[in-house]
Amino acid sequence: MERAVFYPYPNRPGSYDESFFAGLDYEPGLSEAERVPVLDFESNLYNVSLDEFVYPTAFQYQTERANDGEPLDRLETIWQKNIKVSAIGIPFFMTEEGRKCLAEQLGVSAPRTIPEIERMFRNYDYSNVDSKSMDLLENQSVEYEEVRAVKSFIANGCTGEGVPDPKIMPVFRNPEVLLEKIRGYRAYKQYLSAAKQDVAASQDMTEAEREAKLLVVDLYKGRVNRFLSDMYVDAYKFLYFSRNGVMHNPLLFRLERELPAFYASANPEFIARFLQRIDRYQQGVDKDELGDYTWFSSEAKALVQQVPTANEEGALERGEYRDIDVAFLREHEATPETIGAYAREVLSGYGILSEETEWDSDRETAASDGKWQVVVNGKFKNLSVNSKQKIVKVPEKPLPLGKAITLISHELTHALQHENKERVSDLAILQKIGLGKPSEQHESGALWQEREAKRVVLGEEDSLVHGVGYQRMLAAKMAGKPYGALVYEYYDQLRIDRPELTMQGAAQIAVNRARRLYRGGGKEYAIDNDFITNSQPMSYLEQELIYKSLGEEKRTLLFIGGVPLASMVELVRVGLIDVSRMVIPEKRPWEILAPAVHRAILQVQKSQ
């Protein structure tokens, strides 16, 4: 694999041109006779079962660990271990409602001060607490924090001044799994390195086979490194929030020994700088005019400067929605139950709807039939999907009917992307895990389908440059501005992009979105400085770049998930991915739902 321009950091996404995808049109580099041993190698690498005679270094490492009482876990086994983390808004438990909720769910009386409440959550034994209780505590306490911020934002004239920082504490309910996963990934990474040595030294394969096997190992190592970087972020958050507790002291000591760069007494600037490096590794970099690393690529900068064209309502062909009044679709609200039913109808149309109805938020896998479920729950803030559990998350709040259809079209594209990841290749890692977490690529495909849905359902050409609000927030954060200033930046952009929103509605969205910049330890370590510890929100702008860089012919690649475009080109080139095997749905979500929408209109007419 070629190194990125900014190695060891990757390039920021979205800077592709047509030549980048030329590799998709090449003849596969592997013959069928060469392809079979490469797939066998990858399957055995995935299952930690490489032949001892062909891969002696890897087998020796595996044997030595087993003799030491620490057998190697399969990558999937490590990945599936679920770190149970609940976000808890602390000030809620200073209220009577919060105290009552705490007594009912955990059976304890709330202390009288914020530090005491934090200490109580930090030292509580959660081994016998079910996920439903924790979900309820999380939902109510985080909502209280967001409502508190919205009220303050509006009361201060929507300037951002005086908005309290969100006091939301991550509660690790099984923190020992942090150490298990870190150790598991690091050991598996050593196994990969040993296997790479064996491949490089072997004389019993063609050069094409060797190149393909080395490519597989490098892609695996990149995936494991990304998993490890996620663990670093979680470990720092755990260290920070447990530093004044006593319950987890032995675990804290073991974590600090396992990860020498970690120590609870490190100053915030040191930790923020370290987390910024992790973010650069995960999300990529570009360089600014001074030659310094930046999260704001030149391509993204040019896109932000584009002026959107005005929408022309009613000028587009609306197909099966042509006889439906757009005003009705914008004003009539769909209940959460209706939205859930619509999502199930689309999944059923694709043949991937699970028959199971039970769901637990702590579950580590999909339903037993491997298909998708739809869950309506107050824990969820937005319509979204979880591909690990294979669920569509529907919040308990109504939406305008037209918006519900366009959002379903967006989110269920992610379900299709996940399914196609398994179809386009026989690689074992793609059947479960995937080779990357390219959120901007996933979102680009979903944005494409959402735009198509808007054209048909609402007769609206979406020409907005999405994600500018996040870019403005990141720029403010880089200038060292506080949380309230970030809320203002997003709010101000919303008033430009979506003038139909009320002040209250725009403020609610802005408060929620601003919190995204503080994921990954950003709030705890970097709230008062200019370090960017989470630039992932830029993916909402970078997805536009990917969408624009792909012509109509190549855009169907966005129906494949779990494989970054750069990796996809490499795997197609050697013959380990066949994009022709992906399923492009004959009917898109809005087409499947058209009869249901017509039935809803008839029901409304009958009731009037």
Sum up the structure in keywords:
single chain, 608 residues, mainly alpha, two-stranded antiparallel sheet, 24 helices, 9 strands, globular
H/I helix tally? 24
Residues in β-strands, percent: under 5%
Integer average pLDDT: 89
Radius of gyration equals 25 Å
Spans where pLDDT lies below 50 across 5 or more residues: none
Count the E strands. Answer: 9
Oligomer: single chain
For the biggest β-sheet, the strand order reads 6-8-7
Query: Class by helix and strand content?
Result: mainly alpha
The N- to C-terminal Cα distance equals 65 Å
Query: So what's the overall shape?
Result: globular
Q: Approximately how much helix is present in the residues?
A: 40-55%
Q: Could you describe the largest sheet, including whether it forms a barrel?
A: 3 strands, mixed
